[in-house]
Please model this.
Amino acid sequence: MSLSVLSVASECFPLIKTGGLADVVGALPKALAPHGAAVRVLLPAYRQVMAKLAQAEECMRLTDLFGGGARLLVASTDTGLSLFLLDAPHLFDRPGGPYLDAAGLDWADNAQRFAALSLVAAWLGQGLLPGYRPDIVHAHDWQAGLVPAYLALAGGSRPATVLTVHNLAFQGQFPARLLDELRLPRSAFVPEGVEYYGQIGFLKAGLNYADRITTVSPSYAREIRTPELGMGLDGLLNARSARLRGIVNGIDLDRWNPATDPLLAQNYAVGSLEDRAANKAALCERMGLDQDGSPLFCVITRLTWQKGADLILEAAPHLLEAGGQLVVQGAGDMQQEAVYARLAERHPGRIACVLGYSEEFPHLLAAGADAILVPSRYEPCGLIQLYGLRYGCIPVVSRVGGLADTVIDANDAALSAGVATGVQFYPVTAEALRDAIYRTIELYRQPGHWRKMQRNGMISELGWEVRAGAYASLYRTLVPESGAAT
Model:
């Protein structure tokens, strides 16, 4: 049976990206096609998005969409993505990012912007566009959290809904006074509806009304049901646990392929790992690092508390004392950025730092560094460790969320069985990270174990095929439920 799926998100690679959400939204449609699911992505027509598209055609005009007129456009990308674009200039045609202005502050009208996205998605689900009515509407994160609510509250026949939580920490909470403006019935402003501690909770609404909830790893699906990581929503998630499932993210194996990657100094494969050395040499030369055979660690991250950026700073002196080197690529808190810059200045040849976001540089980092540090305090899934595995760059990860689900720790049993792919540590402290770094350097000095770990990682199941099959199976269980109340 063929399925029609409308995917609703605030970002989508290669058009607009601030994090892993965009990679998932951009890669999943192609992976679902062999499973009989035809996906169209509904995306805001941000200024940056329109600049990247050669052509977009109007298929419908909308009036009075939260303060202005709008158009629904159809388009496609060079990568084969089929798109609906919500062209509402008063909401999306502006400088800055999708969520923040040039000063780094939330857009004051984010409630209206993403309510508009959700409302148009609901209209499409109800058959607003002649000839198009999806079987499934798949909403991503808080920005699309009102989609299940609008559909459920409208009554009548509707498509089934899925909400995927990519990071529970970002919830989309707005003042209750916006209820009427956002076209939500007052009867829905209750704990069993959209109300969340006296405010309108976009993510809370989605969690409450969606037919199914997914998140991006099985471990994270368990963790968010605890008070420690439930971010105030653990009660609701436990109440709806029978409809909650964790499905690990994948990566685009064509885009992330060391054998063909044009961003590398030297291509290589699992059978030619010796060629990887040219990338380490190129990385060291580019970053001004000593080329003395030291174990080279890299970090590709947002410099935030969640990602453990402060723990890396605490562990850095121990890494140097043990004979390691470090290259950091990241952006985030300005104070953290300054500290990292000073750290590199104090240790020329041993530590290098590239501040800012880059889509290209992580490819060379993954191909040239020996190990990649991912000490997140919590991590819904994580993609960086998957890139490391794919490129033979050993992940050193905290044992949380998707990191725990995707990296096999090099303990004695795993080494003896020949299945280890990386190093895990817990608790998530600077001391535990320090010990994990020591253990990684010991493994680096055992070429037999190290090469086996690299090969294991490179041949791991990292793509979307299996994951897409899990989503397709979930969709098919929901089709008979279309029109049913949650």
